[in-house]
């Protein structure tokens, strides 16, 4: 069990990231206190690898000392092929955390009329060993 000092050091090391989305990039919330990883909106950055690198780095740091249940929420309206590869990289990192003892759950939201995003969630759930919830929603 972690001591209070260790927990404070962990929280100081891994910072909250809360990026507001744009027309081309998703909203990103990486919260070490609530143990939530959330991406929402549209993901078609010009350089997906560069955009997602800090997220992958954050997950590496978060995984070092976290054993708390973690929820990953993906609620993307649209994503490019290069973003889809980076989403899979995120899922692989989460899977690795799961293999190391952290309980990870994925909530994959898809617009109710969007078969492509629904199918992508199904494919991802078959590629990684993580529990997935597939949830539809109505676009505003």
Would you mind describing this structure in some detail?
It is built from four helices and six strands. By secondary structure, it is an alpha/beta fold. The protein has one domain: Transcription Regulator spoIIAA (2-Layer Sandwich), CATH 3.30.750. The chain has a six-stranded mixed β-sheet with strand order 1-2-3-4-5-6, covered by helices on one side. Helix 3 links the parallel strand 4 (70-79) and strand 5. The N and C termini lie far apart (44 Å). Residues 1-12 have low confidence and may be disordered.
Chart the SSEs and their pairings:
Blueprint: H1 4-13, E1 17-19, E2 27-31, E3 36-43, H2 48-65, E4 70-79, H3 81-99, E5 104-111, H4 115-127, E6 132-137
Write a brief caption for the model:
The chain is an alpha/beta fold and 140 residues long. It is built from 4 helices and 6 strands; from the N terminus they run H-E-E-E-H-E-H-E-H-E.
Mean pLDDT rating: 92
Fraction in helix: 40-55%
CATH architecture title: 2-Layer Sandwich
**Which stretches are poorly predicted, pLDDT < 50 over at least 5 residues?**
1-12
Q: Would you count the extended β strands for me?
A: 6
Strand order of the largest sheet: 1-2-3-4-5-6
> Could you tell me the radius of gyration in angstroms?
15 Å
């Amino acid at each position: 069990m972690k001591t209070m000092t260790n927990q404070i050091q962990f929280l100081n090391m891994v910072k909250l990231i809360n990026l507001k989305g744009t027309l081309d990039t998703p909203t990103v919330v990486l919260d070490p206190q609530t143990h939530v990883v959330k991406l929402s909106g549209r993901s078609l950055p010009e350089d997906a690898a560069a955009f997602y690198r800090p997220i992958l780095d954050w997950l590496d740091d978060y995984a070092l000392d976290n054993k708390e249940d973690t929820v990953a929420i993906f609620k993307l309206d649209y994503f490019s092929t290069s973003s889809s590869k980076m989403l899979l990289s995120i899922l692989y990192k989460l899977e690795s955390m799961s293999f190391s003892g952290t309980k990870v759950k994925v909530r994959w939201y898809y617009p109710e009329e969007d078969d492509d995003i629904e199918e992508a969630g199904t494919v991802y759930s078959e590629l990684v060993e993580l529990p997935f919830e597939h949830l539809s929603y109505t676009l505003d």
